[in-house]
Amino acid sequence: MAALSGLASALESYRGRDRLIRTLGYCCQLVGGVLVEQRATRSEVGTRLLVLSSQLSHCRTILRLFDDLAMFVYTKQYGLGAEEEDVFVRCVSVLGNLADQLYYPCEHVAWAADAKILHVDSARWWTLSTTFWGLSLLLGIARSLWMVLKLRRRLRSPQVASLSWWPRGKQRAVEAQIRSEVLTLLSNLADLANAVHWLPPGILWSGCLPPWVVGLLGTISSLLSVYQAVQAGGQANADP
After folding, report:
1. pTM of the prediction?
2. Local structure of 120: helix, strand or coil
3. Rounded CA gap, 107 and 126, in Å?
């Protein structure tokens, strides 16, 4: 009953609902892609699951029409990252925020072109939005790698090792942050593989991944995101 209540509470928020739709959509693509590729008697079920996955993805695209303002407020609040001590993290975060901010209007134009609202080439705008998404993921990967290396060096530094009084709770907090960064890194890597797949033909492995592989990568990324959200929620409830 507690799990059901937690799910209902998560669905009341936009982010929680988006995570569920994303996870469900990629799971449908994974299972549907496997069934279709096996050409089994249930291939019709697989085709329907792929259609459902496409519709769920379209649903998220429409919901993102309203994300620009929230992203702008976040970007404005972060600014040039004056509160960030690490210069590399600050630069990567600022560039990542800029890429995210530009991603949304490009996707909106692409969606409007597909819906015949605007008379422009939707393919170019989809490519541009995917490029900004991929750039944001690359920057996120660079940030997570840097943070993992930095935090591990901090734990293994002779100064820390020689301090027997260093609080155990502080050490656990650093280890938890490392795990969080590793999960973010894996999630971004899975999404980046899909982002490259959706770029125009001729770029690395673009267009080469079968639907079930795209679904698998998206499912991994989505489940990692859900896990991190649950962990963050549990930690927030545990804090006094």
Report:
1. 0.90
2. coil
3. 6
